[in-house]
Each structure stands twice: as structure tokens, then as C-alpha cells.
Amino acid sequence: MMSKSNEFMNRLKTEITSVVEGLHSPQINIHIFSGLSGGTGAGCFLDTCYMVRAVAEELGKPIKSYGYFFLPDVNLKNVPLELNAVHDYIPKNGYASLQELEYCMNISQNGGEFIQEYNGGKRIKWNRPPVDMCHLVSASDSRGNVIPNAYKYSMNVVAEYIMDFLTKAKDKDEFGLDQHFENFQAFTGAINGKKRMGANIAYCAIGASCATIPLKEINTYLASRLFEQFATIQGKTPTKSDVDALAFSTLATGDVKSLEEVYESLYAELRQDASSEYEDYREDFHYVRDAGNSEMVLHYTNQTSDKEGNIERNATGMEGYQNAGSLLGRIRKELEVVLKDIDRGPMFAYGMLQAGVEYNLSNFIDGLIVQNKSRLTKEASQDTNREEDYQNAKDAFEDIIDRKIKMPGATAKAFETYKFYLMTLEQHKLDLVAYKTMDRVLNELKKQVDQIAVSYYLKLSNVMTKLIETFNENKRALDSQDVVLQKEEFVMPMMTIKEIQPALEERIKKINIRSMMDAFMNLLVEHEEDWIGENDNRISRLVINFFVHQAFRDFATRTITEFLRDKYERQIAGEVTDEVLTNFIYEDWIKKLTARANPLFTLDSTIWQESQTTKMAFLSVPQISAPIQAAAAQIQAVEPIWKSKMSALTDRIFVMQSVCGFPLSAYREINQYEGKYFSSKNIYGRHYYEEKSKCVVKIDWRNLLPLRPQSVTNREEIYSEDLKMELSELDRLYSKACEIGVIDENSRICKSSESDCKTLADVLAEATPLLKEDYLSKNLSKLVEAIENIDHCMTKIQNYELSMSPTEYALPQDGLREREEDIKDIQKDYFYSFPIYQLVVKEILDSSADLLNDKQETLNQLEAKKAEIQGFIDQLSEFDYYCYALFTGVFKVQFPVISCSIEEFDFTFMMDHGLSEDIMLSTVTDEFGSIPFYQSFVTYQGLDKEIKQEIRRISDERRSKLGVPEAKVAVEELKSQLTNERLKNYVQMSLNTTKSKEIMDFLGKINRKFKEFCALYGL
Asked: What pTM value is reported for the model?
């Protein structure tokens, strides 16, 4: 198709233009048929659909296109079981075609759009469904029944379905194709609002059945019986006398009885007005002597020239191919009688001309040619004599004149001799021309006879022979009912030949065989153009027209009611009233036909229920038959779905039922084909590659997801690990898109503006100084303030959401919208099956990913910084209470040991916490034992929380009563330990540790804290 696309589109332009010529605003309906597996159109069915649309637009002609796509199981039914490779290939290639069909049927919604280039520089944009109404045709019906001989059966269903719409109906507005299309749109639109999955449901399946009066078989039977009579012409062979009689009657005039007499007659015909008689020259020798012989010679040569002209004229008339009076024309006219003669016929006529018999007209003409050649040779042999005689006579006359001999008698005699031989020479020349022309005429006749024998009579003979053989074979088949049984696969005959045979035989007896043969052969002669090319179709039409409209017109014009009444009257051997006939038709045909007309598509009930679809059904019945109409009304009363369509067709009852409004994925075989396809991705059928200009990406149709919507897919049953991974990636993509609003609640695809992204970047920048600040040296109030600043910044970042604005893309919002889960399922189904949307969403997410990552990363860093500062705060708080416990004497300083006596604790607390001895906070063996205050703080930090709370309680009591002796003793002891000299020693010792900076900070803070404590309490 790609290599011949230009020729296809030019031919289509010609066809459309010729069809609509002279019509005002015609509605053009184009029907496209294709298989969806290898070798049946699957490789070009989409191209064809889009080329049809493009051509119609170019011509400015509005069209509706109807697609009839035969599913893979139809083709499989036509493939022998032993062809395993083909049985393996068809489902895979078919599934690829189904994916392409589904994708393109959704192309106006799924964001798809690309341009295909064809020969001749034609660029066609694919941005809408390939057809306006898509029919899917399977090998099983809606009840799950596998159709026998499904390949031919399905073809018949589709053909009858279309032909019925093309047939004039009484109510064309209700039962026309336009109304059918409008109903389809209305029904699928209504169903679309009730579905619970995201899928295109604009598909239709059709079923049909048909019962006919077998007029073709009836006429074939009659014709076959008639040709049995015609067949007698095959056994007749022409004899020599037959051939001679043909030659005598056509090539000669009068009563001739031999080849020689025929020749003489033909020669005479050629020499008409060209005889050997010449007009004598009137002047005497004196005139010739004085004026010369030129005038005399011209007198005779001019006569020869005139006669030769007449011979040529006669020859041309005899040779004319199309001239009825020519030799061939006379032969053909005579042979017409032979052709129409039941005792002879076309085979006999052909045999008379050549080849088939030992003696024929071509042989006879050969004899004439021999006869003529003999005479020509004899005449040509006189050339020298005639010339010499003439020259001698001329010389003798001129000699007498030159010598001026005064012998009047001798001069006159010499002159007469001179004239005679001049005339004789011209007669000789004329005879030579005549014989040569006769040779030409006879050879041309032989050539014409040989040619017409092969180009006309042999072909006519072959046609007649083939017709006789064909009708003999038809007769044998009809006698055995083979034809009828074959027709029962789809079209059911309402009667058999056996049932009507007596009436047919009576009709044959009334035929005048001779006159019928004459009429039939006359038809062939008059319509040479219909059979001369040996075109079976044209010959069939010619023969059918003869038998239907002429030979057996009485049978051909009988009504279906008359045929059926005759059948049932013979069946019951009595009269059949209209009411009885109606009941017979209802029981025998209407009920049977409506039961057989199930749509050729089996639904997978796990995906789509029959109750979710809508059906359209009607019976197309002859408007001339009241009993059939009444029978149709009976079924309508029982099953209201059936409507009656009054049809102009007179010989049949046609039943059509269609179901519409279901997803392609509901095809029962889809699960099996899907498994084969996805388990062998390297060897399935070829796909197109779509370029999406808006996104500057390519859609590889090999990566299309399964046809089944995700809402009805069990992920555990997926055949391919790669496919599972792909779906998992889509899960993450979809979840992320919903999370940040790229897919909003109205299924629109959204993205943020550049200004919003800049504002968020500015907000994130505000966190930079907070993260860079050194908080280690800050006091508690500064640390608390820093926590507040970080909390404020984090809240601002968290609360700032990018405002998402809708793009041009939006997933369909059809189906049931009452439950949130249904809305979500529909949205997900569409998203997972629309690759362009996946790419758009990914592009949007990728473009904002860095910013969103920065947002989260900044929040994480701020959270970490807040935790770090809180640690500083917690440390400062513990340091204060450590100091209070130390300064109030809760901790005992017995240098270099610092401890906490358990005697300070409540007895019950000691028992609950298993305290039986003092808590050692710093000893010489500890890591920092040489700096007892720092070591004791480190140990204090690691104490049980409840012990630290008990120490805090005791120190708080003592701070409220600073007059207690323990506090005064502790302060005095610390004054001796926290001198500048000792502190310097501690600092020097800290330099040998890994915590020198912390220890120095600690010593500085405890020194300041002790001085503040003493000043505050006047100690």
C-alpha cells in the first residue's frame, strides 16, 4: 500500500467524483473492510482509513466512513490446523493490530497526533479516529457459539448487512444508514456515562441471518435442463458436403456445384465492369502516320487503367471485414443460421471454418488459391510473347511508313495488326492484375476466415461448451442438493429444488427448444462485446438476464408469497390461507432467523457484561408480502427489540441484530492473544511509530500497554516481568503526579508557572543564613530564638505550594462519577493507556523535580539544624541543673572525687531504683578524672532521667532555702577548687584530650556560673 498509495488515492478521487457527479449535496458513505492479522489487510488498514478521509477532504466532500474489521479468530478458522507457525503468528500480529486500532480510535482524546508521508509528497495527519463507526467481527457469536465455516459466514454477514442498507426501504428515514449511525452514537453516548472503567466503548458488533426463495437455484435448474437440450449441438461434425454447401452459397452466385465453378463466379465478381473487351481506336493509319501513335497508345492504356480501378474497387468490396456484402460478411451471415440451428450450433460453425475437422472452409479457399495461381502462372508465361508480338507489329507498321511504300492495302493491314497486338498486350496486363488481385483477395479471405474462426467462433464455441458443462455440473449439484446445503451456512433456502421440481419440469415441457436456441444464440450474436473477452462475470450477467427476463420470466416474477403458498399447499395437500401461511412463516423462518442473528462478538464477562450494552435489531421483509409482515409482527409482540423494515427486496427475509457500546478489551480472545504477544515481543507483527510534535517525542507502539484496563487487571497474572516493572514505574509516576497536583481532581494535566517556581526558590533561599549560623557559642535565649526562626522558615516553606495551572491536556471525565473509587479507576485507566499523557506528566515532573527536591532537602536540613540547636538547649539546661546540684551540696566534692550520696534521696525512691551506694560522678580512673568537674558533668548527663529529676528536685529545695548548712559548706569548698590557678591547670590538662575545646568552654561557663550564683545569693 505504501508503494502504491498515490495510485490508490487517485483511483479513489476518480471513484468519488464519478459517483457524486450531478448530485446536489450527496451524503457519501464509504465502507472499509480489513482483517486484523497478517495477509488480510492488517498492514495497511489504518493507512487506508486515513487516506480515505484525506481524499474526501481534498475533494471537499463530506463522508461517513464505516470500518468492518475481522478479528484474528476469523482468520484462524480459515487456516489448516497443521500450519502451527501461522496459528502462532496470527494472534500476535492480530493483537498488535488491535492495539493500533484502539490507540487510533482514542487518538482525539489520548493526545496522539502525527503525520504519515505517502508517495507523491502526500502528508496526512492522523489526529482523529480512523472510521466514524467501527464494527468488530469475530468467529463466535454473543452466546459464545463458535460459528462453523466462520470465515465465509462472517463475510456474508457483513455483505448482507451493508447490502440491506443499500436497498430501498419504505421508511428510509427510520431504517437508513444515517439513522442507524445516529442511533449508534446516541446509545454509545448513554452507555459512556455509566461505565466504571476508563475505556473507549464506541464499538459495534453485528449479526445477521437470511432466508430466501432460491431464485438463483430455480433459474439455474431451469437453465440446466434447457442446456441439456442444447447439448445435442456438441455431437455434430460438419462433412465435406456441409463445407462445400457453405462455400457454394456464400462465395458464388447461381447454382454452382464445384470449386472451379465457385472460382469462376468469384473471378467474374472481381471482373465486374472490368471485362477484356476494349473499345477500338477509330482513327486510320493516315492519322497515326501524320500525328504519331501517342494518342492511340493512350486510348488503350487508359482503358486498362480504368478497368484496373474497377477491379480494385470490386476487390475492396469483397475483402471488407465489417462489410456485410463482403465474402466474409456473406460467410458470417450464413453461419448465423448455423449458430442458431439446434441441429448444428457454434461448435459446428467453428468446425466448418478450420481445424476441428479434416475438411473445412479454409481448405476450400486453399483450393481456390491454387486454381488462381495456376491461371496467374499461365498468364504470366505469356509476358514475352505479348511484348514481342506488339513490338514486331509496331516495327512492321513503322517500316512501311518510313519507306513510304505506296501499298495502301498493305499499310492498312499492318496498321490493324499493330492495333490488335497493342490491345492484346493491354488485355494481358489487365488479366495479370486481375489474377494477382484475386490472389490477394483469396489470401485475405483465408486470413480473415482463420482469424474469425479463432477470435469469434472458437470463443463462442468455448463459451457455449463451458456453459453446457457448467449447467450440467449445476444440474448434478442441484439434484444432490449440494448447493442448497452449502448455502445453509448463512443464507437459508426457504424451499429446495426437490420441493418445486414438478412445477419446474412442467415449465420445461412447454419450451420450444428450437426457438429458444435461436433466441439465445441471437442474444450472443447481438451482444458480442459481453462474451468476446471471455469474461466470466459479463457472460454470467448476459446469461442470467436471458433466463430471468426472457426464457423463464414467469418464474422470476413470481412473488415470495406465491412460492411459499405453493410449498405449504403441497406439504399439507390442501389450501393455505394467509393466516395459516403467516403461522408457517413465523414458526419455520422468523423464529429461526432471529435466533441465528446473534452478533458475531463474544464478550468477556469479567470485563463487560451484555447488560451494559445496547442492541438494535430489525427484520427486513418484502413490502409486497402481507403474510411475512404479519409473521414479523408476531415476533415483535414477543420480543419488542425487533422492528419491521419494509424492503423493496422481494425474495428474502433478512434479520439484523447489532450490539453497541463495549470496549475492545472485552473481546473474549484478548487474554489469550495478549499472553502470546507479550511473551514474545521480538517476533510479533510490525507497528507504526508515532511522532508527537508538541512534545518532540516518539511513541513506539511496541511499548503500548495491554488492552485490558488496569482497573480490571490482576497484576499477579501479568505474563512479563518487564511489563510488571513498567507498570510499577507508572504506579510511581501516577502517584507522584496526583500528590503534587500535576493530575488534578478534574483529571486535568497541570504545571506550575515560572513565577511560582521563582518565588519558591526565593523562599528556600531564606533558609541559607539560618543553616550557616554557628550556634555552639549562643546562650539559651539566643538558641530558643533560633528555634523559633527555623520553625517560622519551615512553616513558610511547607505552606508554600506551587499553584498548578491546567495545560491543554485533560484525561476524559466520562463514566460514573458518583463514587470516588470509580472516578479514580477511570482516571487511572486512561492515564495508563495514554502514552502521550505519561510523557507529558513525566516531562512536567522532571522539570520541577530539582525544585521539589530542593524544597524537601531544605526542610530536612532545617529539621536537622533545629534538632542540633535543641541539643544545645538540652545541654544548657542540664548544665544549669548540674551546677545547682554542685553549688547546693547535692554533689559532694572530696577532691579529686565528686559523688552523689544516696542519703540525699527519699528511701522509697532508693528502693524503687535499686540504689544501695553513692553515685560516683568522677574518680581518678575515669577518662577525664584529672578534670573532676568536667568528668562529673559527663557522668551526670548519662544518668537515668528519673535520677536526674530527683537530683533537680533536691537542689531546687536547697536553692529555695539557701541558709541550709550543706549549701554553705559546698560553696566554701568550691571556692577553694575553682580558683584561677586550678582552672588554668585544668585547661592545660585538657589540651591532651580530644575534647579540649569543649572542656575549656565548660570550665569557663562553670566559673561564670559559680560567680553569678554566689553574687545572686550573697555567698
From this structure: 0.66
